[in-house]
Amino acid sequence: MLPLRLIRGGAPLTQLPRLLVVAAAGSVGFLLLCALSYALNHPGDAGVAVPRLLWCLVPLAATVQLAALVARTAPGPRTRAALDAVGLGATGLPLLAALQTAVFCLLGSALALLVYLHLRGDVVGLPFDGAAAELVAAGRPLPVVATLTLLLVVPLVAAGATALSLRATAARRAAHPQPPALDRAGPPLPLPVGLSYGTALIGVGIALETYAARGTGAPVPLPGAGTGPGPGVVTGWLLTALGLVLAGPGLTQLAGRLLAAARPGAMRFLAGRILQEEAPHIGAPLGVLCAAGCGLIAASHLYGPDRPLGPLTVLGGLVVVGCAVAGVCTAVAGSRAALAPARAALAQLGATRELLRGAAALRVAAVLAVLTPVTWGVAQLAALPLT
C-alpha cells in the first residue's frame, strides 16, 4: 500500500510526468495489440507480422526510458530522507519505485485494452461505422493469453528497468560523492567516456545501414505498408540511436566547456560550469531527443505527401517524440532541484536574478548550438543510403 499512498500524496504538478507515463504505456500497449490484430487477420504472413511487432520496440524503449527517468526524479529530498529513516535505503527505494512504475504502466495497459475492445465492438458495438475494424481484427476471436502477455510487457520491462536504474544511481552516489561544480575550483570536468563510444556506435550504425541498404533503390517501408526493412537496416538505425544517447552527456558537457572558454565573464563562466554539472543528468535525455529528431528528419526525406504514413506509424512517432521531450523536461526539473542550494548560495553572495536568467539562456543557446548540427548531420547521413 505504500506505493499507492505515495502516489496519492504527491503534489498535483508531480503527477503530470506520471500521467505522461500512463499515456505512453497505454499507447505502446495499443500498438502491440494492433500488431496482434494484423497477425490474426493474416495468419500465414509471418514475414510482415513479425516486423510490425518488432517496430513496437522503438516506442517501448522510449516509454521505458521516460518511466525510469520519472522514477529517478520523482521522490524529492525530503521524501527520500523520510524513506531512508523508515528503513527503505539503497535496496528498498528501487523496489518501491519499480512498484510505482508498474502501477502506472498497468493503468496505461488497462486503458489500452478498453480502447481496443471498444474499437472491436466488444463493448457497445462497432464505433465509427466500422472504420477501424480491420485495424483491430474485429469479428475474429481474441486470444486471451496472447493479449494479456502483450499488455504485461510494458509494466514488467519498465519496472525492471526502473529498479536497475535506481540501483545503479545509488551505487554511483555511494562510490563517488561529489560536491556541485559551483563549489569546486579547478580545471573543467573530464569528458565522459560515453562520447567516444557513442561516436563509434554512430559510425558503425551508419556504415552497417549503408551496406545493408545497397541495391534497395526505394525508401524502407514503415509499419504501415509493404514488407518490413531488413535486419541490417534496423540494426544500423538502433546502433545510431544508441550512439546518440551515449554521446549525449559528453556533447552537453562539451557545450559547457565551449561556453566557459576564452576568458569568460561572470555570466558565461557560471553558465558553463552549471552546464558541465548538469551534463550527467540531462545528457542522456538530450541524446534521446536528438535520436527522435534524427528520425523525424530522416523520415521527412524518405516520405512525402505522396507516401502518407499510417495511423499506427503516426502514433508510434508521437510516443517517441513525446517521451523524448517529456524526458528532457523531467531531467531539467530534477537537475534544477539538485542545484537549488548552489543557486541560493549565489544569491546570498549577491548574484542578481538577471545574472541567473542570463546564464540559463546561455545554457539553452549553447546546447542548441552543439546538438542541432549534430542531429541534422546524423539524420542526413542516415537517410542518404536509403534515398
Distance between the termini: 54 Å
The sequence of SSEs as H and E is HHHHHHHHHHHHH
User: What gyration radius follows from the Cα positions, in whole Å?
Assistant: 23 Å
The domain tally reads: 2
| Tally of contiguous helical segments | 13
Task: Please report which band the strand proportion falls in: under 5%, 5-15%, 15-25%, 25-35%, 35-45% or over 45%.
Answer: under 5%
Largest sheet: none
Q: Helical residue percent?
A: over 70%
Transmembrane segments: 20-40, 52-71, 92-119, 144-168, 189-213, 233-260, 281-303, 315-339, 360-383
Keywords: Membrane, Transmembrane, Transmembrane helix
What descriptors fit this protein?
73% helix, 387 residues
Summarize the structure.
This protein has helices at residues 2-8, 15-41, 46-55, 57-73, 77-85, 92-120, 144-175, 194-212, 231-259, 266-302, 311-338, 340-348, 353-383. The protein has 387 residues and is mostly helical.
Can you describe this structure?
The protein has about 375 residues and is an all-alpha fold. The protein has two domains: about 170 residues, no CATH class; about 200 residues, no CATH class. The chain is about 75% helix and about 0% strand. Helix 2 crosses helix 6 and helix 10 runs parallel beside helix 13.
Q: What's the arrangement of secondary structure elements?
A:
Elements: H1 2-8, H2 15-41, H3 46-55, H4 57-73, H5 77-85, H6 92-120, H7 144-175, H8 194-212, H9 231-259, H10 266-302, H11 311-338, H12 340-348, H13 353-383
Helix pairs in contact: 1-6, 2-3, 2-4, 2-6, 2-7, 2-11, 4-6, 4-7, 4-11, 6-7, 8-9, 9-10, 9-13, 10-11, 10-13
